[in-house]
Amino acid sequence: MPDKVREAMQLMVAAERKKRASITESEGQRESEVNVAEGIKRATILKSEAQMTESINKAKGEAEAILNVAKARAKSIELISESLQAQVDCLQSSLPLTASLMDCPKRE
Questions:
Q1: In tens digits, what is the pLDDT along the chain, a chain of 108 residues?
Q2: Please, are residues 39 and 47 in contact by the beta-carbon 8 Å criterion?
Q3: Residue 9: how many CB atoms within 10 A of its CB?
Q4: What is d(CA 77, CA 84) in angstroms, rounded to the nearest whole number?
């Protein structure tokens, strides 16, 4: 085989190797960039989900606190009502004429 043909073939083989190496490097770089982008996307999603969970938990806590305050107020009103009713009952039993004089219905 003539030297020039051999040299041309060697140049073609070298060019093909260089082309393949360039393609492989390009594909590796593309895959790396895709992996980085997917990582950023996943991190953003997780951060968003964490913020949403935090907001939900905070709202639930605030709602529970409001409910507890309302229950406490209702209980205090109930206790005041019972105390007032006990005082009325005591007055009605100690002064039976008071109910008839004031034209109030008597509790039994």
A1: 788 888 999 999 999 999 999 999 999 999 999 999 999 999 999 999 999 999 999 999 999 999 999 999 999 999 999 999 998 888 877 765 555 555 555 555
A2: no
A3: 11
A4: 10
Whether pTM exceeds 0.70: no
Helix (H, G, I), strand (E, B) or coil at 106: coil
Residue 107 backbone zone (phi > 0: left; psi -120 to 50: alpha; other: beta): beta
Token couple for 101: 């004089």
Q: Distance (Å, rounded) from C-alpha 52 to C-alpha 48?
A: 6
Separation CA 66–CA 4 (nearest Å): 92
Q: Helix, strand, or coil here: 62? A: helix
